[in-house]
Amino acid sequence: MNPSLTTTWQNDSTITEFAPNTVHYAESNVTSIAALFGTVIASLLPVLAIVVLYLVIDMPKRLGLLAVFTASFSMSLWLLTEGRPIEIFSATAAFSAVQVVFISTNSGSP
Fold first, then answer.
1. Sign, Cα dihedral of 13, 18, 23, 25
2. Measuring CA to CA, which residue among 103, 11, 13, 90 is closest to residue 50?
3. Which of 1, 5, 87, 96 is surrounded by the fewest CB atoms within 10 Å?
4. Separation between Cα atoms, residue 59 and residue 66, nearest integer Å
5. Cβ count within 10 A of residue 66
6. pLDDT band at 27; cut points 50, 70, 90
7. What is the 3-state secondary structure of 59-107?
8. CB neighbourhood size of 44 (10 A)
9. Per-residue model confidence as pLDDT tens digits over 80-97
10. Which residue ranges does the record assign to the DUF6594 domain (predicted)?
11. How far apart are CA 51 and CA 55, in angstroms?
């Protein structure tokens, strides 16, 4: 990295001189918002998966949706957490297993 840029970013008054229209946020604020976003996604994705799988009757469509929801869950864990690959794999396997059990015991909406 260019040493002059490193020193430029260490001094707030210099930052506003070169980028006056730039907004700077504290790292703790950004981390808190990201954690909140991750928590909301983690809470809503399983519920959304079950509701959608309940409403779809056709089994091939359900299996396709299961793959989409499982991939979405895995990608959200990968992007929004600092989990190790084994932790992400384990959580994804558990999520997928719950969906498979739901599909196999529920024939769809009445």
1. negative
2. 103
3. 1
4. 10
5. 19
6. confident
7. HHHHHHHHHHHHHHHHHHHHHHCCCCHHHHHHHHHHHHHHHHHHHHHCC
8. 10
9. 888 899 999 999 999 999
10. 9-100
11. 6
Place of tokens 């070169």: 18
**CA 61 – CA 12 distance, rounded (Å):** 54
- Select from 58, 60, 68 the least CA-distant residue to 107: 58
Q: For residues 39 and 80, what is the distance between their CA atoms, to the nearest angstrom?
A: 9
Structure tokens belonging to residue 90: 């384990």
The predicted pLDDT at position 90 comes to 95
Residue with tokens 């600092």, as numbered in its chain: 82
**Token reading at 30:** 């950004």
Calculate Rg over the CA atoms of the chain: 22
| Residue showing tokens 């504290």 | 26
Name which of 41, 44, 46, 39 is nearest 102 in CA terms.
46
Average pLDDT over residues 95-109: 83
